[in-house]
Amino acid sequence: MSLSDRINAGLRRVPTWPLYAMGALPPFWYFYLGLTGGLGAEPISALEHRLGLLGLQFLLLGLAVTPLRRFAGINLIRFRRMIGLLAFYYICMHLLTWLVLDIRDPARIWADIVKRPYITVGMVGFLALVPLAATSNNASVRKLGKRWRQLHWLVYPAVVLGAVHFVMLRKGWQIEPLVYLAAFVILIVLRLIPRPPVVRRSARA
Amino acid sequence: MAYKSKLTWADVTPKQSWLNRRQIIAGASGLGFGAIAGPIAAAVPIEREPTSYEDITSYNNFYEFGTGKEDPSRYADAMTTDPWSVQIDGLVDRPGSYDLADVLKGMDIEERIYRFRCVEAWSMVIPWNGFELRALLEKVGVQPSAKYVAFETLYRPEEMRGTRSRVLEWPYVEGLRLDEAMHPLTMVATGIYGESLLNQNGAPLRLVVPWKYGFKSIKSIVRITLTDSEPPTSWNKANPREYGFYSNVNPEVDHPRWSQASEREVGAGIFASRIDTLMFNGYAEEVASLYAGMDLSRFF
């Protein structure tokens, strides 16, 4: 049994619901850290930043599921919905921190969305995720059929907008956000590598 | 114009007891204590408590040591600040390389509590120790043809890990118009809360221009040059659309990245709301006349 087979066998035994419960914890943990001085001198922006980053990391992890299966033989497909929903949840908390703890003033919030390009970009990315989160359930998959796949293609623009939002909000060209943007590009390029033609004869032999 | 404050923290409260100092500040504004404190306190009423020493020394932008806020406090120790000398040249009568001791000789070190507003929309209140820049400029003799002052930060890659990244062009440079440099509010800081400056705050000498965004207050200065033309400034070179030469704090001039209408007080905690940003960071009375007739949305 190869390593990837063993990993897959192990993963099959992992139930998803405890992972959902664990995935729900980080925002509360960060908030607690912010309350108790664990996020440094500026806890609001630290909270915003950590939640946004976690959301982006989970979005990228979601995009890594297919290449991981194809190139490493590791099958995380059972967890993909959870990864996507947790990413959406973290991004909601990120947005909520900005709205409720940071800006607070509805007029300024609207002005920021309209006038600051990085916020506009982030907001459009968030809006693209809303229908995806809303249809991440079995009933929607059945109901939408073929259109479900078409709809969920929206994840690509959503992730790229999230990564660009990160690049734009930093002063100057900083390395960290560019690494995330590069990770997105790599994950897309891996998808574009054509699959080798199926060789039927060897299958018979 | 005499712009001296005789009152220092040492007059008010024992060194090291910052908590007491803060209580006194809080009480002072209510008691009209500003009148005793002299022109500085009177002209610049600060209702806010000074930011804690810990926050001032652990939440910094000093990209030579990394772009993270904690990077300077983590890595700036590597910078050698002794010996230190400042090259003063250009349109001055007595150019040369001045040792730190020569720079400080005859300077009147006083304590001044200034607001400090970062372009990233966070702010602090900092009790600086230092002297007026104009005292140093007068010491070296400014020639009549000089119109600007250029400043340069130390650039020593082996001690400054952040300079390995090209996030900015090194060395960091800044500049002021001569009248801004000669303004009595403009100071060269040597300490905070009565302690010598820590490296992350720009030891051993840094500029403090309280009505401008923080990046104008250049740290760890190794060169001061008097010139007749506007000197280049680092953030302006990196992104001229976002960072102008003047970079005066101005809640009305929008920055494409951050709203400048309000700010977060560092150290105020997770439930604190933003406060309104003041024109010229609250120093309009003192400095607005420097910009009379200028379109501040063009010369931002």
From TrEMBL, chain A:
UniProt cross-references to HAMAP family, sorted A to Z: MsrQ (MF_01207)
Transmembrane annotation, as ranges: 20-39, 51-71, 83-101, 121-139, 151-169, 175-194
Protein keywords: Cell membrane, Electron transport, Flavoprotein, FMN, Heme, Iron, Membrane, Metal-binding, Transmembrane, Transmembrane helix, Transport
Membrane topology according to the record: Multi-pass membrane protein
Cofactor(s) for this UniProt protein: FMN; heme b
Family per similarity comment: Belongs to the MsrQ family.
Keyword Protease: no
Protein function: Part of the MsrPQ system that repairs oxidized periplasmic proteins containing methionine sulfoxide residues (Met-O), using respiratory chain electrons. Thus protects these proteins from oxidative-stress damage caused by reactive species of oxygen and chlorine generated by the host defense mechanisms. MsrPQ is essential for the maintenance of envelope integrity under bleach stress, rescuing a wide series of structurally unrelated periplasmic proteins from methionine oxidation.
Domain of life assignment: Bacteria
Subunit structure: Heterodimer of a catalytic subunit (MsrP) and a heme-binding subunit (MsrQ).
Every Ferric oxidoreductase domain range: 52-162
Organism expressing this protein natively: Sinisalibacter lacisalsi
UniProt xrefs under NCBIfam families: PRK05419.1-5 (NF003833)
Compartments, record wording: Cell membrane; Membrane
Main location: membrane
Protein name: Protein-methionine-sulfoxide reductase heme-binding subunit MsrQ
Cofactor mode of binding and number, as noted: Binds 1 FMN per subunit. Binds 1 heme b (iron(II)-protoporphyrin IX) group per subunit.
From TrEMBL, chain B:
Cofactor(s) this protein cannot do without: Mo-molybdopterin
Binding note for cofactor: Binds 1 Mo-molybdopterin (Mo-MPT) cofactor per subunit.
Domain Oxidoreductase molybdopterin-binding: 80-235
Residues the record lists as binding Mo-molybdopterin: 60, 63-64, 118, 153, 201, 206, 217-219
One Pfam family hit: Oxidored_molyb
EC number: 1.8.5.-
Reaction it catalyzes: L-methionyl-[protein] + a quinone + H2O = L-methionyl-(S)-S-oxide-[protein] + a quinol; L-methionyl-[protein] + a quinone + H2O = L-methionyl-(R)-S-oxide-[protein] + a quinol
UniProt keyword annotations, A-Z: Metal-binding, Molybdenum, Oxidoreductase, Signal
Function noted in UniProt: Part of the MsrPQ system that repairs oxidized periplasmic proteins containing methionine sulfoxide residues (Met-O), using respiratory chain electrons. Thus protects these proteins from oxidative-stress damage caused by reactive species of oxygen and chlorine generated by the host defense mechanisms. MsrPQ is essential for the maintenance of envelope integrity under bleach stress, rescuing a wide series of structurally unrelated periplasmic proteins from methionine oxidation.
UniProt family annotation: Belongs to the MsrP family.
NCBIfam families: PRK05363.1
Subunit structure: Heterodimer of a catalytic subunit (MsrP) and a heme-binding subunit (MsrQ).
Protein name listed in UniProt: Protein-methionine-sulfoxide reductase catalytic subunit MsrP
Annotated organism of origin: Sinisalibacter lacisalsi
